[in-house]
Design a protein that fits this description.
This protein is an alpha/beta fold and 231 residues long. It has 2 domains: 130 residues, 3-Layer(aba) Sandwich (Rossmann fold); 85 residues, no CATH class. A 5-stranded parallel sheet has the order 5-4-1-6-7, sandwiched between helices. A two-stranded antiparallel sheet has the order 2-3. The longest helix is centred in the middle third of the chain and has 14 residues. It is globular and about 60 Å long. This is Hydrolase.
């Protein structure tokens, strides 16, 4: 098989280069309808629902279903529906839900994968264009900026700024246009076959990584870059 020489790599954010790790201090004081603290199983399910890349995670009425379907295009709709998700997931107290939601959308609270820095630095150092493409309703640039990694990223393509979401082709087209590359010379790396894999619809290549806890996935990004002859 002939190896493509990629001129650009697009990385998904959540579950790909960063992960929202469960922090016991965030969840320790959460209480249910009876005032009982959430057990570990409930806490784990709560975090899964808050970070699932695709798929509706709770039953929603028409108003909240609209918010869910458009959550990554509009920060207000994102806040509205995820407060409802928290409410239905065992966090009925509004003050607790707001406090947790505020932490979940703070990009400085997210944890990078062990090989994220090496990959970003390596790809950029090779002269390959690098973009971060995410379905998200808040600005993730501070997660990179506080570590100096924003210097390696040519473009951030964020759904709430672009007005399109994966798997819609428009967001991938916006990415390659901003980077000034052809889709056939672009590799998309992400943790969702459904969302990120749709980059293939405009002619990009795609590589899947598993959204495992960061300590369980030390070198998946490096392996992808080596397999695709980027590094």
């Amino acid at each position: 098989m002939d190896l493509v020489t990629f001129r650009a790599v697009l990385f998904d954010f959540s579950g790909t280069v960063f992960r929202l790790e469960q922090d016991e201090t965030w969840l320790a004081d959460l209480t249910d309808h009876e005032g009982e603290r959430l057990d570990i199983e409930a806490q784990t399910e709560l975090m899964r629902r808050m970070t699932a890349p695709v798929g509706q995670v709770v039953d929603l009425d028409e108003e909240h279903l609209h918010a869910w379907n458009h959550r990554d295009r509009d920060p207000e709709l994102h806040r509205k529906v995820y407060l409802e998700v928290l409410k239905q997931s065992g966090v009925p107290h509004a003050d607790q839900a707001v406090a947790l939601y505020t932490r979940l959308i703070d990009p400085t609270q997210w944890t990078p994968y062990p090989d994220t820095e090496a990959v970003l630095k390596g790809v950029s150092g090779k002269g390959v264009k690098l973009g971060v493409l995410s379905n998200i309703a808040f600005d993730i640039r501070p997660a990179f900026g506080r570590r100096g990694w924003d210097a390696y990223v040519d473009e951030f393509i964020l759904s709430f700024e672009v007005g399109a979401v994966k798997p819609e082709p428009e967001i991938f087209r916006a990415a390659v246009e901003r980077l000034g590359v052809d889709p056939a010379e672009t590799l998309m790396v992400g943790d969702s076959e459904e969302a990120d894999g749709a980059a293939r619809d405009i002619g990009c290549a795609f590589a899947l990584v598993e959204p495992l806890p960061t300590h369980e996935r030390p070198d998946a990004l490096l392996n992808v870059m080596r397999t695709h002859n980027v590094l």
